[in-house]
Amino acid sequence: MVVVPAMVEGAALGVALLPFLRHRWDMYRWDRDHRNDHHPKGSDHHEALTLLLPVWNEAKVIEKKLANLAEQGVEANMVIIDSASTDNTVTLAESWLARHPSAFTSNEVIRMDARKGKTAAVVQALHHIGQHQEGLICMTDADALLERGVLRRMMQWFADPMIGAVGAMPSRKLARQEEKTHREAWEAMRLAESMVDSTPFLEGSCMMWRPSCLAIDDLNAQANADDAQIATSVRCKGWRVVVDPLARFVDVAPTTAAGQRRQKIRRAQGLQRLLLRQRKRAGERNQGMFARIFRRQVHFHVTAPLALTVATTSALLRWVFIALYGWPATFTLANSLHLGFTMLELVCVVLWWRGRAGKNNGPLRLIGQWLSSMELLGRALIASTRGVSLHMWEQHEDVRERMLELEV
Fold it and tell me: Rounded to an integer, what distance in angstroms lies between the CA atom of residue 76 and that of residue 83?
């Protein structure tokens, strides 16, 4: 009675983990073979630029954000879309723009009648700007500050006609160890995928794309992860989507473990919904290497947490059998399997608990981070199964407070 649950647990663990190991090996090869080629082709490339700034109750940071964008020194049209803020975000923005008339080539504030979520706001703004608008669009979040020269740096990538979208990478401040490990793993993955073809995930905190490369109708206004939705749409239309490791924005992590987990679960649900919705289209063979990347991301975000749930259930069932029928006889296959899996489970529980608590697991930190990520992905799947959509969320007020202290 012990052997069958142990075999199911082992098989499920293999299903969950082996594709990650394969992808890590491929990431190493892609980085080794393509790192020297991963840089923008342009050096003085210029195009018309529209800055898109979605906001909702950002009164604390809106003036600092506008000043940060103005300091980029790039001629740009500013479009602010406000999701029916209940504070004085719009008043402060309009006042700042009136006091700094030369900050942007032009400026416009779009007011929504009701709050519908960030993706809905982005969709409305993009329709307002126009899908066939000449030049480039750069979307950025109010709670992120761009380092100097980022917009000009990102624009140079579009000297290559095959580039459809470019994303900046985060320099996250005040992050716990768990968050640092999580970010490092994600950054390495997105960069390696960009080198060999494209990544389906960009950061909405700062991303730039050519409007004609995006099908606005691909965006689901009732889901979050608008940034990943845009990136996937651009790549599915045939253009490359890359991240630039030298284009950086600064943001602040939620100061509490609960806040960071809430942020990750919300993001996870958006990515899962995107991956499931686009899996057939993006996973087709005519998408080349990107199809393999996308299929693996479906595995990482959906299949792996389900497989780990099966493994956990099998482990619990094995212990139920032990409680009912006693410990297996010494020198039997059942005894060996049970002892082996008991040690493995003990190590995994310790790494998972330390990882989610923000503790450093040393050389095993990636395993701890993976296990804690699987927990959050599983919780996101449960929320979706229950019909709970997280595309509208309460802000992290501590992030806005800490952002005011940042210097870029």
Answer: 22
